[in-house]
Amino acid sequence: MKKSIEEIQKEIISEFSDLTDWEEKFQYLIELGEELPAYPEEKRTESYLVPGCQSRVWVCPSLENGELQFYADSDTALTKGLIAILIRVFSGHSPKEIANASLEFIDAIGLSKFLSISRRNGLSSMVNMLQNFAKNSGSEI
Q1: CB atoms closer than 10 angstroms to residue 32
Q2: Which of 11, 40, 56, 105 is the most buried (most CB within 10 A)?
Q3: pTM of the predicted model, to two decimals?
Q4: Alpha helices (H) along 76-116
Q5: How does 92-116 read in b/e, with b if 16+ C-beta sit within 10 Å?
Q6: How many angstroms separate the Cα of 10 from the Cα of each of 85, 104, 137?
Q7: Can you tell me whether residue 93 is helix, strand or coil?
Q8: Which positions ≥6 away from 52 have C-beta within 8 Å?
Q9: What is the C-alpha separation between 20 and 117, in angstroms, rounded?
Q10: Is the domain defined by 5-135 classed in CATH 3.40.50.10490?
Q11: Helix 77-90 vs helix 22-34: angle between axes, to the nearest 10 degrees?
């Protein structure tokens, strides 16, 4: 059975609670980013760039069978890990679920506390872009 956005967030919170310090947490985020599938070169265009990010982050949505799938890449390892964790939470859910999702895990694992202001702003921009894709993806909302 498919996991809800809330269940996925709980899994992430649990995974991060096992890590003892921020060096381990950042390393884990980097590892998550390394697991992203290859991003198509033809989608590395301005129209797929996340605005408001210090790093370059590309996100491409795809609506498949009423569910959004997201593909992404970044030019920095930590940012790639941040987008990877957001994709894990959102991909495979309906636009309505994504648009209405509340992301408690960001505070629960300490990202809003331990990321620099510019990275927090970038993370917020990524969340906004993913949820805007959901809001603009059709009649389900």
Answers
A1: 19
A2: 105
A3: 0.93
A4: 77-90, 95-100, 105-108, 111-114
A5: bbbbebbbebebebbebbebeeebe
A6: 12, 9, 27
A7: strand
A8: 121, 122, 124, 125
A9: 23
A10: no
A11: 70
The amino acid sitting at 60 is: C
3-state secondary structure of 63: strand
Q: Note the pLDDT tens digit of each residue in 112-129.
A: 888 999 999 999 999 999
| CA 121 to the chain's CA centroid | 13
pLDDT of residue 52: 87
- Residue 53 among the catalytic residues: yes
Are 53 and 38 spatial neighbours (Cβ–Cβ below 8 Å)? no
Q: Which residue has the tokens 């921020």?
A: 22
60: left (phi over 0), alpha (psi -120 to 50) or beta: beta
Which of 53, 106, 115, 123 is catalytic? The answer is 53
CA distance 134 to 62: 10
How far apart, in whole angstroms, are the C-alpha atoms of residue 101 and residue 87? 13
Measured in degrees and rounded to the nearest 5, phi and psi for residue 100 equal -95, 0
Per-domain residue ranges for the chain?
5-135
Distance between CA 108 and CA 4 in Å, rounded?
A: 17
- Report the distance separating Cα 38 and Cα 35, nearest Å: 9
